[in-house]
Amino acid sequence: MKSKQPNIIYILADDMGYGDISYLNKNSKIHTVHFDRLAKEGIAFTDAHSSSAVCTPSRYSILTGRYNWRSSLKKGVLNGFSAPLIEDGRMTVASLLREQGYKTACIGKWHLGMEWAKVGDAESEVDYREPVQKGPISHGFDYYYGISASLDMPPYVYIENDRVTQLPDRITHNDDAVAYWREGATAPDFEHHQVLPKLTARTLAWIEMSKDEPFFIYFPLPAPHTPILPSEAFVGQSGTNAYGDFVLMCDDVIGQIMNKLDELQLSGNTIVIYTSDNGCSPRANYEELAAFGHNPSYVFRGHKADIYEGGHRIPLIVKWPQRIQAGRMSDEPVCLTDLLATVAEILEVTLPPDAGEDSVSNLPVWADMPYERPLREAIVHHSIQGAFSIRQGKWKLELCPGSGGWSYPKPGEEPEGSPLYQLYDLSKDIGETNNLVDEYPEIVQAMKLVLEGYQESGRSTAVSSK
């Protein structure tokens, strides 16, 4: 059985838009050859969604199969010193796979909180000489190497397993709008522009080291989030701006991983998943990119943080030659919460009632098996300010009068008299421009009841009867 278990590599970009991948956006000005190759050799989804329009909550959902708003974090994101978000004892994708004999590694940006040893009352007053508790190693990972949060959030130290690799010896910051990072403690072995290459090299080495047994690698990139730091080889290569160049650097990371799998003859039975935690950030400079004819949000309204499609509709590409026919596209609505249930079905494992409450197996779509559409009854979305929306078929109901995030109209800045809710028919109005809330009160009521049912019952899926 072990020899047949597929390796799994889950690569999560930080703030990359659907429109940044040329395979998904024929008008993209960024030519992503490696993303395109991945899609041509696998399946690309056109209607995939993160559970939240920002990063920490999306990461919680990816690893637990549970909607982020069920956690203690009701809006916003954590920082590099925040307390752990994943509850003690909660099943994660990593803990499930480790139980099934997998070697598990997280290499990259965690951003789900850790328990630092304190030396004072201030959040940043920590003792870097002491172990870090309740990080990846406590949630199913055999190995961890990475950073505690976003690359623009201190502390700027590498953590290996449960200890920092070097003690901070200086304070750094960068006020540049593009290469921005907050002021914070920085270790001597930490250079911001080297983080993505260093994490990539560590991932490639771990693949090589683990090639003889089934492995799971969760590789959350720190890019193309700020600080936007394309290395010299990529500067100017996209024909757009620094963000476009950084996207190409991420594209190259995918190429390195696929080449390593080919070299080790692991490609046939390795699942490679590429996606993003939310939509593109306005830090990419949408106005500047528009001058080059490029839109990271493709045809969707809004961007990172928003309840609109641009906030949470994300690229999702999956390659698995053993089960996925090459060159397929799917318009099935799916959510990043679905990884846990998908992995469980692949391994023929029944999830316990207290795990994966909002996770639906995508294996029928991956493997082109007969299934009853839609795969999911509905998908719930969440904005940075905690605004909800629910998607059911062609309809999307947003329980707020504006973006719920950073684009116009922001919370509190909606035009006077704006309806409290928004209802869009995405089959006719993908840009979410024509609010039909007053025309279809029965649909609004029915969708509200579905959402309320999900909230009150503690799950949106049936408990397995196997």
Written overview of the protein:
The protein is of the alpha/beta class. Helix 1 packs across helix 5 and helix 4 packs parallel to helix 5. The strands form 4 sheets. The protein has a 10-stranded mixed sheet, with helices on both faces. Strands 15-16-17-18 form a 4-stranded antiparallel sheet, with helices on one face. A two-stranded parallel sheet has the order 3-14. Strand 15 and strand 16 form a beta hairpin. Helix content is 22%, strand content 17%. The chain has 10 helices and 18 strands.
Observed structural traits:
466 residues; alpha/beta; ten-stranded mixed beta sheet; 10 helices; 22% helix; 17% strand
Produce the secondary structure layout.
Blueprint: E1 7-13, H1 33-40, E2 43-45, E3 48-49, H2 55-64, H3 93-99, E4 103-109, E5 143-147, E6 159-160, E7 163-164, E8 170-174, E9 181-186, H4 195-209, E10 215-220, H5 242-263, E11 270-276, H6 286-291, H7 309-312, E12 316-319, E13 328-330, E14 334-335, H8 339-346, H9 363-366, E15 379-382, E16 388-392, E17 395-398, E18 422-425, H10 441-457
Parallel strand pairs: 1-10, 1-11, 2-13, 3-14, 4-5, 4-10
Antiparallel strand pairs: 2-12, 5-6, 6-7, 8-9, 11-12, 15-16, 16-17, 17-18
Helix pairs in contact: 1-5, 4-5
Q: For the terminal residues, how far apart are their CA atoms? A: 21 Å
Strand order of the biggest β-sheet: 7-6-5-4-10-1-11-12-2-13
Coarse shape:
globular
> Residue-averaged pLDDT, rounded?
97
Q: What is the strand content? A: 15-25%
Parts with pLDDT < 50 across at least 5 consecutive residues? none
| Series of H and E elements | EHEEHHEEEEEEHEHEHHEEEHHEEEEH
Number of distinct beta strands:
18
Oligomer: single chain
What is the rounded Rg?
A: 21 Å
**Helix and strand composition category:** alpha/beta
Q: Largest sheet, if any?
A: 10 strands, mixed
Count of alpha and pi helical runs: 10
> Helix share of residues?
10-25%
